[in-house]
């Protein structure tokens, strides 16, 4: 049986293209499982997984928890806001306390970039990065690529534009790495103030005109403005942002082709996309949510098989 080249999922930049294909093939199998009447498999009955979230999360946390339970793993949920972290406990102490309960895998979201990498050097358990600051969010990028593959048959050769707040988005960075690794053509689109200075070094095109970006692409991945990470104002008003970079049905219908619309969620309806776009047949947003469970099952299953 093929296996992953890594012991942890810390970021897409540590994966090979063959790892991504293996995760997708495994997810195909699990997608079939979660559409059965009995949605559980006993694959990880002897594995204990701790979900440690130092930042708020709804969809990612629920998706991981559901994936773990579908695989019959034992699950511990830990929320930093209700823990000794508030009393000054360090990341290492928190995790070592959890590991002393004989945990095999840690799924962690943390506001500091590189927290998962730091942790992987200090603890024995397998680490899955569920988002570290504005750095990476690997399972989101995997489920996004998987959803494109499902909709369009392949990722290679497709034109994908990522629109919005690229500067603060871990989703954008992981998506760029994943899409490039699979041979897609990638552009980013947004206000110049929300594009990182190092964007050229990532080998992606830059387009500041939304209409031109949509005319070029097969897929548009719409990101929300990360208001919780904006310490200063990067554009005059939300209304002005929406006029320049928001997608509405009228704009989509005026194109001479059908663009696939994606969004990692949560959606700010009426800002980056209107409700009639989010709920249209061109949108695969709900497919992304369903695929998130299958992808996370695949990642956990493949990493668990490497635990000695």
Brief digest:
This protein is α/β, with parallel strands linked by helices and 308 residues long. Helices cover 38% and strands 15% of the residues.
Walkthrough of the structure:
It contains eleven helices and nine strands. The protein has two domains: 12-136 and 289-304, 3-Layer(aba) Sandwich (Rossmann fold), CATH 3.40.50.1370; 138-284, Rossmann fold. The two termini are 16 Å apart. By secondary structure, it is an alpha/beta fold. The protein has helices at residues 17-34, 59-70, 91-99, 115-120, 138-152, 170-181, 210-216, 238-245, 249-253, 275-278, 285-304, and strands at 48-53, 74-79, 105-110, 126-132, 159-163, 185-189, 205-207, 219-222, 260-262.
Name the beta content range.
5-15%
Strand order of the largest sheet: 7-6-5-8-9
Residue stretches low in confidence (pLDDT < 50, at least 5 long) are none
Overall pLDDT score? 91
| CATH homology superfamily name of the largest domain | Aspartate/ornithine carbamoyltransferase
N-to-C span: 16 Å
Percent helix, as a range, is 25-40%
CATH class of the largest domain: Alpha Beta
Estimate nothing, just give the exact number of structural domains. Answer: 2
Order of helices and strands: HEHEHEHEHEHEEHEHHEHH
CATH topology of the largest domain: Rossmann fold
**What is the strand tally?**
9
What characteristic shape results from the CA principal axes? globular
CATH architecture classification name of the largest domain: 3-Layer(aba) Sandwich
